[in-house]
Amino acid sequence: MKKTFFLLAGLGAACLSTHALAQHNTPPESRNDRNQQQSHHETAQHANPQPQQHGSAATTVAQARRLKDGARVTLRGEIRQHLRGETYVFRDSSGQINVEIDHDDGPHVAPGDRVEIRGEVDKERRSVSIDADSVRKL
Q1: Nearest C-alpha neighbor of 54 from the set 1, 132, 126
Q2: pTM across the whole model
Q3: Helix or strand holding residue 17 (H, E)
Q4: C-alpha closest to that of 102 among 115, 89, 92, 87
Q5: How many CA atoms within 13 Å lie on the side-chain side of 76?
Q6: Could you tell me the CA-to-CA distances from 85 to 25, 32, 82 in Å, in that order?
Q7: How far apart are CA 14 and CA 33, in angstroms?
Q8: CA distances from 60 to 43, 51, 94 (A)
Q9: Which of 44, 59, 121, 138 has its C-alpha lying 20 to 30 A from 74's C-alpha?
Q10: Are 136 and 114 in contact (CB under 8 A)?
Q11: What is the pLDDT of residues 72-120, one digit of tens each?
């Protein structure tokens, strides 16, 4: 048991030493290139952000349609039509989508109301809709 422990500890130390040696033997310009690539990648992520998940920036209907089932979204636009029960048609500048709004998720909404809807994408076999968690009139 003790021999196995010391053998494993020795292997771990050897791996760490090899990594440190590789870092030390890398020319400074290569390390700078790697740091610049990392910095460029981080800048690109901030320049092209993903749709906000319940953040202050709105997700468009077109973006929401491309997201995975269960993705959190914030939509801003207009209620266009009440289809039935808790199902409404919501529209923004990029398109329209059906939204399920529970009557206790916010104020009563009607066609023509400008709203902010926070919820999640609900993908079925042939349709995409939004299941609202909260609704706020704008």
Answers
A1: 132
A2: 0.59
A3: helix 2-25
A4: 87
A5: 9
A6: 68, 60, 8
A7: 27
A8: 23, 8, 6
A9: 44
A10: no
A11: 999 999 999 999 999 999 999 999 999 999 987 678 899 999 999 999 9
